[in-house]
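Friendly challenge for the regulars: who can give me the structure tokens for this chain first? No prize, just bragging rights.
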Amino acid sequence: MSLIFASRYRCNEGVILIAATNRPEILDPALRRPGRFDRQVLVDRPDKIGRIEILKIHSRKVMLGENVDLEEIASQTAGFAGADLANLVNEAALLAARNNRQAVLMADFNEAL
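First reply, four minutes later:
Bragging rights claimed.
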């Protein structure tokens, strides 16, 4: 879960500051006290459709085998954040490279999971 902070400086109405973190509990309390940020928005982990889109983005530069089904991978990765999905694609690509393959196969994704 990500927490996004937004603030507008009162003295200069043209400046908007946005910050994001996946670990709000480790932020300095001075950053979280009232008046520092106007809004706090919780962003939940992506649903299946969001995971499919994230996988499409992270797998753009990776040659995928014909048997790779991003929808199936998205179904198997409930609870994964965008960074988790990026790591999954990278790990699957590394496994394919270790096995001297030009394309990443579904077996690589299954092993990476």
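Residues 3 and 21 are 5 Å apart (CA to CA). The radius of gyration is 19 Å. Your move, everyone else.
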